[in-house]
Design goal:
It is a single chain. The protein has 294 residues and is mainly alpha-helical. The radius of gyration is 22 Å and the shape is globular. The longest helix has 20 residues. Helices cover 57% and strands 4% of the residues.
């Protein structure tokens, strides 16, 4: 690479490619932008393997975890492969840099009893309460990502068939079945909550705010935390924990891994297999707590 290299335009070009050509989510794009901007801020000359290694060492020195450093390296790999494909680089400087070793972190899940308590927490007589309960029920019933949940449009829910059409990562669409409990909660929200929130305004989105706008990821996350505390959950209830609970409870009930993969929208089944380790961990804990020789 000739020096000096203009990092800013290269990063913007890469992000545009990811947005338009690959259809990546805004969350992924923001993560790429933050990681690459941090890298570029310390590189005055080039992007050789030595500068990449030095950057990785600096991340460790700053106290970042192995998982976070691995995410930074993933961003750099994608960026430099793009530059090679575009002919701006002759070789990928991250090619021979090993990924950080990470211990396996199992997803945290809720018991079915706690899920029921969270679902029952929203005020049933208020429009916001009806909306929040419908969102919690649908999230647990379908395993959607929170960005998929808040982005749902009215036309993507088929109440008669009991399915929802979801646009996931990479703009890939999938049909996910929705159970009776979630459908009933959604029907109650549509009948007694949504139009009250909209106040005669129109919106294509299923879940809306009192301002008539689409429900935001941050707004739902905050509300879910409040409902979790009312249900006695004080260790950081998140939408992803409900998604993990959905997958784990399905497998506990005998669902096959491929079906769970399809409903979660995982491109690779190895991503879904983490939930089999969750089951193993829960079984071991059960034996340790309840078996006379545990």
């Amino acid at each position: 690479m000739s020096a000096p290299f203009r990092w800013g335009p290269a990063i913007r070009s890469f992000l545009s490619f990811c947005r338009v050509e690959k259809g990546l989510s805004e969350n992924t794009l923001l993560s790429y932008e933050l990681d690459l901007t941090r890298f570029a801020a310390g590189q005055a000359v080039d992007g050789t393997p030595e500068t990449v290694r030095r950057h990785i060492d600096n991340l460790y020195a700053a106290g970042l975890s192995g998982r976070t450093v691995a995410r930074h390296l993933t961003s750099l790999r994608a960026f430099f492969r793009f530059l090679v494909a575009e002919g701006r680089l002759d070789a990928d400087p991250t090619e021979l840099i090993p990924s950080p070793r990470m211990g396996r972190v199992l997803p945290k899940v809720l018991s079915q009893k706690k899920v029921e308590a969270v679902s029952a927490s929203p005020e049933p007589a208020s429009p916001r309460g009806l909306r929040d309960r419908a969102m919690i029920e649908l999230l647990y019933a379908s395993g959607l990502r929170v960005t998929e949940l808040v982005g749902l449009r009215l036309g993507e829910l088929d109440q008669a068939r009991g399915v929802v059409r979801v646009t996931g990562k990479g703009n890939k669409q999938r049909l996910v079945p929705v159970g009776r409990s979630a459908l009933e909660a959604i029907a109650a929200y549509l009948t007694g909550g949504r139009q009250t929130l909209l106040k005669e305004r129109a919106s294509p989105y299923l879940f809306v705010t009192a301002r008539g706008t689409k429900m935001t990821r941050q707004g739902f996350w905050k509300g879910l935390g409040t409902h979790g505390k009312r249900a006695g959950i004080f260790d950081g209830l998140s939408p992803h924990k409900l998604r993990h609970s959905f997958a784990t409870h399905l497998l506990e009930g005998g669902a096959d891994l491929r079906s769970v993969q399809a409903m979660l929208g995982h491109a690779d089944i190895s991503t879904t297999q983490i939930y089999t380790h969750v089951l193993e961990s829960r079984l071991k804990k059960t034996i340790e707590e309840h078996h006379p020789r545990g």
